[in-house]
């Protein structure tokens, strides 16, 4: 809950997770069939994160 003074507390990790969930929902609703694991990884940018970590 935000303080009464009007300053909002931002949790950048939570905001990023919400954005990714939204992108996954959009991809799933646009797909004609169930999304494959590869499609889900692409939407969630899993391979990009793996390549950055190496």
Descriptive overview:
The chain starts with 11 loop residues before the first helix and ends with a helix. It has three helices and no strands. By secondary structure, the protein is mainly alpha-helical. Helix content is 63%, strand content 0%. The radius of gyration is 16 Å and the shape is flat. The relative contact order is 0.11.
Primary descriptors:
63% helix; single chain; 54 residues; mainly alpha
Summarize the structure.
With 54 residues, this protein is an all-alpha fold. 63% of the residues lie in helices and 0% in strands.
The helix/strand order is HHH
Main sheet properties: none
Write down how many β-strands occur, each being a DSSP E stretch of 2 or more residues: 0
Measured distance between first and last alpha carbons: 37 Å
Work out the helix count: 3
Structural class, please? mainly alpha
Helix content: 55-70%
What percentage of amino acids are in beta strands?
under 5%
Q: What is the topological layout?
A:
Layout: H1 12-30, H2 37-43, H3 46-53
């Amino acid at each position: 809950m935000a303080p009464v003074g009007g300053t909002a507390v931002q949790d950048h990790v939570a905001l990023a997770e919400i954005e990714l969930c939204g992108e996954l929902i959009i991809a799933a609703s646009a797909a004609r069939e169930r999304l494959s694991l590869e499609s889900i990884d692409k939407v969630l940018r899993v391979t990009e994160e793996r390549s950055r970590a190496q």
